TrEMBL record:
SUPFAM superfamilies: ClpP/crotonase
Pfam families, per database record: ECH_1
InterPro entries the record matches: ClpP/crotonase-like_dom_sf, Enoyl-CoA_hyd/isom_CS, Enoyl-CoA_hydra/iso, Enoyl-CoA_hydra_C
First-level EC class: lyase
Protein name: 3-hydroxybutyryl-CoA dehydratase
Keyword Cell membrane: no
Record flagged with keyword Lyase: yes
Family: Belongs to the enoyl-CoA hydratase/isomerase family.
Species in which this protein is naturally found: Flexistipes sinusarabici (strain ATCC 49648 / DSM 4947 / MAS 10)
EC numbers: 4.2.1.55
Record GO terms (molecular function): hydro-lyase activity
Length: 258
């Protein structure tokens, strides 16, 4: 494993920490590829959620490694961007909630990685932004599309055209961040949420994620068809029988993910 990625399994959660503090956790190709691989193989790990965070207080991820990008030609840059999109797909296809716990700078590729997660919890000291235009480029790791989908194209344009950084509170007001915490409470607040989800039916949680993501860019009619299909699939699971039985027996359900 890369010296810059740390993983830890703790109380049903897989923590992935990007730890390259001297460069403010800027990510290079090998970190990206490894992250894609780890998120793509969480299925067999017996965890309920994945939390992605950055080491230290200063940064979540201050972007793609500019040093690695600076001499690329156009065709290399295209391949680089397309390769980075694999990470977004891996996050979307992961059957578990993937939560970004953002501390400090989440810039460029760092903002994009956070947006690729299911949602973002951020500490008060978090700063989000797309400074790419200051480098003469645009976000290339899904940022133009992911931010538009989360906050609308007008917000995406305003932030991407200027490269302006926004604080966690402004990001929350724009619907980019789900929760803002004190810096020292970021992980505890994230864990509190995951504990709640861990008691829910895992197949239901996984299918809810898939249904929301798949339906998001379709017409309402097409999206409702996907929902009806996912809804019906769950009625052939033991978890559905257990969940409804437990309701009438006035006890907590014991879901097995079957
Ligand atoms: N890449 C490489 N090195 C970086 C990066 C980065 N993105 N960000 C910071 N560093 C390095 C600095 O060069 C510096 O190194 P050194 O100590 O050797 O000089 C060290 O980290 C500390 O940084 P600063 O001294 O600059 O710290 P400050 O507190 O003064 O400033 C900032 C903090 C404002 C975050 C500043 O470092 C900064 O502006 N960083 C660059 C931010 C940026 O432009 N990010 C976007 C990069 S482009 C991008 O992300 C496109 C993604 C494309 C897909 C990527 C797929 C892999």
């Amino acid at each position: 494993m890369s010296e810059y990625l740390k993983t830890e399994k703790k109380s049903n959660i897989l923590y992935i920490t990007i730890d390259r503090q001297k460069q403010l956790n800027a990510i290079n190709r090998s970190i990206m590829d490894e992250l894609t691989e780890i998120v793509g193989s969480v299925k067999g790990l017996d965890v309920k959620a994945v939390v992605l965070t950055g080491a230290g207080e200063k940064a979540f991820v201050a972007g793609g490694d500019i040093n690695e990008m600076k001499d690329k030609c156009a065709s290399e840059a295209k391949e680089f961007a397309e390769n980075s999109h694999k990470l977004i797909r891996a996050f979307r296809e992961c059957p578990l909630p993937v939560i970004a716990a953002v501390n400090g700078y989440a810039l460029g590729g760092g903002f994009e990685i956070a947006l690729a997660c299911d949602f973002i919890y951020a500490s008060k000291n978090a700063l989000f932004g797309f400074p790419e235009v200051k480098l003469g480029i645009i976000p290339g790791f899904g940022g133009t599309q992911l931010l538009s989908r989360v906050a609308g194209p007008n917000v995406a344009k305003e932030l991407i055209f200027s490269g302006r950084f926004i604080k966690a509170e402004e990001a929350a007001a724009l619907g980019i961040v789900n929760k803002v915490t004190e810096p020292e409470e970021l992980i505890a607040e994230t864990e509190k949420y995951i504990k709640e989800v861990a008691g829910r039916g895992p197949l239901a949680v996984g299918l809810a994620k898939q249904t929301i993501d798949k339906g998001f860019n379709l017409s309402l009619e097409e999206a409702l068809t996907i929902e009806a299909s996912a809804f019906s699939i769950l009625f052939s699971t033991k978890d559905q029988k257990e969940g409804m039985k437990a309701f009438f027996e006035k006890r907590d359900p014991e879901f097995k993910g079957e």
